[in-house]
Write a structure and sequence with these properties.
- By secondary structure, the protein is mainly alpha-helical.
- The chain is built from 7 helices and no strands.
- Helix 1 packs antiparallel against helix 6, helix 1 runs parallel beside helix 7 and helix 4 runs antiparallel to helix 7.
Length: 153
């Protein structure tokens, strides 16, 4: 198996697959309703919904950077706001998250191992580091979501 394929496997496991550490990000999001997703269950912490937007934003940012684009990360791009709390808007947020991951995944599927050490347009890191970073990012925020779910009761 190529290194790019191994990274893709780790991305898939963290996002929606069988992760050895526990539930994947998408598994943790199952059964959460809009009202709970929008709550700030822990003071000064982001809501689950805000975290979902943030993860999707970074899927897009990393994909764009892997594609050679220069992306300025503003506060609003980093943490897109939740404008409307409804089940329809929540469902759309989850769909957008999955779409952003699918687009990133498609780009990674086409990477060759010899491209992994190439530096991105911004950030000064290699594709290899950015892709491992997105796995770490998913897992970090999945842990936050798990704690927020417990805080919601």
């Amino acid at each position: 198996m190529s290194e790019a394929r191994r990274i893709l496997d780790q991305m898939d496991r963290a996002f929606s697959g069988d992760a050895w550490h526990g539930p994947s990000l998408m598994h943790l999001l199952e059964g959460i309703h809009a009202e709970d997703a929008s709550k700030h269950a822990i003071r000064d912490a982001h809501s689950i919904w805000e975290i979902v937007h943030h993860i999707g934003a970074w899927n897009r940012i990393v994909r764009q950077r892997l594609d050679g684009e220069s992306v300025k990360v503003t506060t609003e791009r980093d943490w897109p706001p939740v404008w409307e709390v409804s089940e329809i808007a929540w469902k759309r947020a989850l769909e957008t998250l999955c779409e952003s991951r699918a687009a990133l995944r498609k780009l990674v599927e086409n990477l060759r191992d010899d491209q992994l050490e190439e530096k991105l347009a911004e950030g000064g890191v290699s594709r290899y580091t950015a892709l491992h970073g997105i796995v770490q990012h998913d897992l970090y925020h999945a842990g936050q979501i798990a704690i927020l779910k417990k805080a919601l009761g």
